[in-house]
Q: What sequence folds into this?
């Protein structure tokens, strides 16, 4: 690129300060030109810390300063007008997850952008163990994949009044399934793209309108065949935070944290460790850096990035289906 792409940020929360801005400041070819937030003083503080001009949110998103790319780090229910405005201005957008509240909403947003110009913050796709697992599944190194078991979460306490976990206006969007579980659902679907997903059972613990514990079983139908999935994500119990990929000839246990190990298992004991020196993120900071690197390259070349929102519709579809199934049962 002959000149840096200009980037504007809507949202001045912790994820912007702790993850996005450090990555963006270390990437050539992009320059952050403004930051805005519904709390002007928060945007001003963050802007001053990073030497970025803070701007006030106008009455209409169309009145925001122009930019080539926008980071949309707002709650999911507050995105529609921004995405419509940025689409009309031909501004590429990377959204924080969860991306949408429903399949219809997800598809509506994607219809406004070409695949390379709309991204979603599923940066775990860039983690080294996820990249290697995609290769193992695609090549059927250990035979066809037959079953996946996933568990993630831990005991948490409620946030203070008005905090993120207590905003009951859009419980489905703020619960554990959309907030944390969307990452592991995306891990599954980006590794084995579904043709269909059939929900067999789903239990949810709902507190103050928000799902805080989800245990489900579903069947993923893919070109390789059907794969059963046992799935648990929670804020109420301590979990091992791992996934077990059961192939015909071996079971591979994957740690979910950045740089997590891949182990071939014999029962409950590791038999061997797989080499994860392939290129990928081993830390959260590296994952955000590679996410932005991939997205910017996609915008520059017209090629969908590894975090294209168009490729994540099955996550939204399954979150919606699990809530519907839990409501029926």
A:
């Amino acid at each position: 690129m002959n000149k840096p792409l200009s980037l504007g940020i809507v949202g001045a929360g912790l994820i912007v300060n702790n993850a996005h801005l450090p990555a963006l400041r270390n990437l050539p070819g992009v320059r952050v030109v403004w930051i805005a937030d519904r709390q002007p003083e928060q945007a001003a503080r963050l802007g001053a810390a990073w030497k970025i001009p803070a701007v006030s949110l106008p009455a209409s998103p169309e009145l925001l300063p122009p930019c080539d790319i926008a980071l949309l780090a707002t709650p999911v229910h507050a995105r529609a007008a921004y995405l419509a405005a940025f689409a009309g201005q031909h501004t590429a957008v990377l959204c924080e997850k969860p991306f949408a509240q429903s399949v219809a909403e997800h598809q509506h947003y994607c219809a406004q952008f070409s695949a390379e110009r709309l991204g979603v913050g599923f940066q775990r796709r860039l983690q080294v163990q996820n990249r290697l697992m995609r290769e193992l599944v695609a090549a059927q190194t250990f035979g066809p994949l037959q079953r996946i078991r996933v568990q993630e979460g831990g005991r948490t306490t409620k946030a203070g009044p008005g905090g993120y976990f207590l905003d009951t206006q859009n419980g489905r969007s703020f619960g554990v399934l959309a907030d944390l579980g969307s990452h592991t659902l995306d891990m599954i679907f980006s590794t084995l793209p579904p043709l269909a997903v059939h929900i067999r059972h789903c239990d949810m613990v709902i507190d103050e309108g928000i799902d805080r514990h989800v245990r489900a079983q579903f069947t993923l139908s893919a070109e390789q065949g059907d794969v059963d999935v046992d799935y648990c994500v929670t804020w109420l119990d301590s979990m091992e935070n791992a996934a077990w990929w059961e192939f015909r000839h071996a079971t591979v246990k994957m740690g979910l944290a950045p740089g997590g190990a891949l182990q071939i298992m014999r029962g409950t004991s590791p038999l061997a460790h797989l080499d994860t020196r392939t290129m990928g993120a081993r830390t959260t900071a590296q994952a955000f850096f590679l996410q932005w690197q991939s997205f910017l390259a996609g915008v520059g070349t017209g090629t969908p990035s590894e975090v294209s929102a168009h490729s994540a519709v099955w996550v939204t579809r399954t979150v919606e289906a699990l809530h519907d199934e839990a409501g029926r049962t």
